[in-house]
């Protein structure tokens, strides 16, 4: 069906991706968002009470996620992607133990083949 208006509720990553995908279909696309900015939970903000910048939501994009990488290309943002070493912080609230999971770079997850008891994490 050509023409007509599509209303998208939410300007998080899924809503924005849907809007971008619909733009070339001949329909009018209207995105509705409650928050003062787009991006949903994938954003950072400064918390004055703590004096810290808080990362809210998941900012991880794996290189195998071709759909997400294609979306970045479509919106002209592939050169804005910051590439960091992957590190995932964990905490056991019952014991107070903390550790960081650091997978290796590359397509093959070599760290899962290690004979060490916990090859994939380091204690920080």
Characterization of this structure:
- With 124 residues, the protein is of the alpha+beta class.
- The chain has a domain at 85-124.
- It has helices at residues 13-22, 66-74; strands at 5-9, 28-32, 43-47, 52-56, 88-91, 98-101, 121-122.
- It has a 3-stranded antiparallel beta sheet with strand order 5-6-7, with no helix packed on it. A two-stranded parallel sheet has the order 1-2.
- A hairpin with a 6-residue loop joins strand 5 (88-91) and strand 6.
- The longest helix is centred in the first third of the chain and has 10 residues, at 13-22.
- The chain is extended.
- The N and C termini lie far apart (56 Å).
In short:
The chain is α+β, with helices and mostly antiparallel strands and 124 residues long. The chain has two helices and seven strands. Strands 5-6-7 form a three-stranded antiparallel sheet, with no helix packed on it. A two-stranded parallel sheet has the order 1-2.
